[in-house]
Amino acid sequence: MNLIIVKIGGNAISKLNSEFFEQLRQWHQAGKKVLLIHGGGPQISQLSAKMHIPTHKKNGIRVTDEQTLALTKMVLLGNTQPALLMRLAHEGLAAIGLNASDQQMLTGTYVDRATYGAVGCITGVNELALSKLLNGQIGVLAPLALTPDGDWLNVNADTAAADVARVLKASQLYLLTDVPGVLKDGKVISAMIPQDLPHLIEEKVITDGMQPKLSAAVRAVHAGVQAVRITDQLTHPGTTLKMEAND
Ligand SMILES: Nc1ncnc2c1ncn2[C@@H]1O[C@H](COP(=O)(O)OP(=O)(O)O)[C@@H](O)[C@H]1O
Ligand SMILES: CC(=O)N[C@@H](CCC(=O)OP(=O)(O)O)C(=O)O
Question: Residue 164 belongs to what domain range?
């Protein structure tokens, strides 16, 4: 699908500027399909703290018990997604909010139930329905999936964006975050190939949330996504991951 996917981390939502919306407008006018996948991790943690529900993360992944799952759905579908949709409307961009329960949009499976609880990865996307819905409007999709048995799963938003990009063979994937790219010695690494990742992890240059983000990005380029860009603004160069350095 001639599709551009942009993942917006929970931290990045409130920092979206006019250049971001202008870029969306240009893609839209050029006839490109655009899908935004939003996070909401910091917002989920904030509400958990307010409600005295402890947050447990393992390898950057939220351990999701029944109570945390209910709260995660509340925040993503009741807070972060409408906030983003309202912002798009304010900027005059036609958009539609989507989640796994709309026409079986995202199907998933448990990652490791004993370790993480209701955490999943995406195994299927209703491509036909999504393709139709993305005609003339920008899609805004939450990182939640449903198992074939109807269990909700919490999916890391980077993983969700990369999985959807992989399944739909999106041309470009942008992972917007709170840093200007992958940093080494305080400088942005402008270009990366998958083979660079293991030693950067080993040298502890890449840690925390950047690690699952890059692993997801590597899976996406292996599956045919032409380029994954990690940046703080759509208009900033950031770090571009491709299969080949000279590509
Ligand atoms: N080499 C690195 N370059 C940039 N950020 C890194 C690096 N290693 C670890 N990080 C951390 O990864 C974070 C981004 O990942 P994450 O917090 O999961 O973002 P988001 O919530 O936007 O998905 C950065 O804020 C930074 O703290
Ligand atoms: C399983 C898992 O960890 N899910 C994430 C989903 C939201 C997310 O990834 O949001 P950010 O991109 O803002 O971090 C979470 O519960 O925080």
Answer: 3-241
Tally of domains in the chain: 1
Rounded to the nearest whole angstrom, what is the distance from the C-alpha of residue 244 to the centroid of ligand 1? Answer: 24
The CATH number that applies at residue 141 is 3.40.1160.10
The tens digit of pLDDT for each residue in 1-33 reads: 789 999 999 988 888 999 999 999 999 889 999
Atom index in ligand 1 nearest the CA of residue 60 equals: 18
Catalytically annotated residue among 9, 33, 39, 41: 41
154 annotated to a ligand binding site: yes
> Is 41 marked as binding a ligand?
yes
15 is catalytic: no
Distance between CA 59 and CA 70 in Å, rounded?
21
Tens digits of residue pLDDT in 207-228 = 988 988 999 999 999 999 999 9
Say if 62 falls within a structural domain. Answer: yes
Q: Which residue type, as a one-letter code, is found at position 247?
A: D
- Asked if residue 246 belongs to a domain, the reply is no
92 occurs within a structural domain: yes
* ipTM confidence: 0.96
Integer angstrom CA distances of residue 242 from 74, 175, 190, 231, 239 = 36, 14, 11, 15, 10
